[in-house]
Design brief:
45% helix; 23% strand; alpha+beta; 16 helices
Amino acid sequence: MRDLTKYIRFGLQSFIAVCGAVIVWRAWPLDRFSFAIVVAGLVAAFIWRRIDKAADAPSVDASALEAHAIMLRADQDGKISFANERLLQLTGYERGTLLGQPMRVLHHVADAETYAAVDAAMARGEKWTGETRITGKDGRVLWTRMTSVPQMDKSGAYCGSLRVHSDISAQKVSTAARDAMASLNLLSEPLFMVCLDTYNLVFANDAAAKLFNWNRLQMAEIRIFAVDMLYDRLAVQRQVAALKAKQITEFSFPATYHDVPYLAEVQLIEAAGMEPRLYVVLRDQTESMAIARTKDELVATVSHELRTPLTSIKGALGLIRSGAAGDVTKKTSDLLDIAYRNADRLVLIVNDILDLEKMAAGQMDYDIARRDLVQTVKEAVTANEGFASRFDVSINLNTDDEPAWADFDADRIHQVLSNLISNACKFSSTGAQIDVNVERRPKSFAICVVDRGVGIPSGAVERIFDRFTQVGKSARARSGGTGLGLSIVKSIIESHNGTVELTSVEGQGTTVTVVFPRATNTATPANLIRSAGGKT
């Protein structure tokens, strides 16, 4: 097209030149023939000007490209002088805002070197083709295939450039998705994705397809809740509902498939251009559970082997302290006291470990009967007053004398209260007061143990009921504990269909509240106690 334009221009220029020569040769005044030549020359000059303008315009068919291509034109200073509708639609800019702006307002910051190469090619008068990114007004990013053509003036000097972009964002996303899927197929752990709205399977890697024997051609018809895997379905559905409500971003749950234990880790994935999906990874727990069982068996065995000799040592030390083996000097008595306290502490630790192992194995026995909770609380407070005096703290019981009937194991609840009161003593400052309050609620009774001690850091509150959890080295040194007490408390209370609540402010104190359901049976308490001889 450009070559044809050049030939037409050359022909018209020649024709005008001939017309001018004829006019000069024929001279003035003009006859009809000369007048016709002048008119023809003027018409030729007009056509020549129109062709000249057409030659300066972009050498593309704008109407054909408008619907598919992004077109830009920049002047010699790199400022935008033309932008087609397609560009405005995709970037969100208005033409009046964009024209006159430097080209770099559309450039992606990561493409600085690429656009520098484009500018260098334009300065040399060379065409450039390659992949670039355009940034929209709202920050959206478009991947494009761009061809930039230098524009030259009549003298051959660079006067700007024409850029034509084709949007390849969809192809880029598709390629990235394919690469991601290929990577997921290399994972040894089963992984699959589920549509959040329909719960239909969207994708499964090779490990998941093999595990569940899924046919890839029929995968879209598989509803994940129909998979024959053992897990707490109601609990999982509640967690999924929390994901939908944006209350959580991930969760995990134990599951079993063909007698193999798994930990399923679930995340919500949301990305532009695709429906929300649940991303599920199954992690085989066979090895880790075997290791845990071995560790638990070892701990239980050692604890059993230690308890008998420790009990004997503690008993022997008690007899010596009491003078049953003869008089002891003051110095010897002091040493015996230290040995006795440490032996007592070791026995308590061993008993705690054995209790935890029984609870974990579901072998803990409870003697549940209708009893007065107030009386049990009073007995626990009295039993721990001597312990409190060792730390120079006092215990204040706040309750009335009206019975609070509930169904519980008195020994285990005494153990719970002793744990809570002893913790409060250990972490209270000298001379402090600990409050033990019994609250009567519409459907339950609550026992609150309140101290005004060191408190618990906010980041540690969530894990304070985990095994072997201790907060702070100085507190551990003062308390002499192992971090098993609260874990035992939680397990015992939950076995009584109760709950444990803990609130704490570091530097101000801690409140632990255990809540028991009220007794619902209207039979007399005495009859219930007499008939509750069996273990539950």
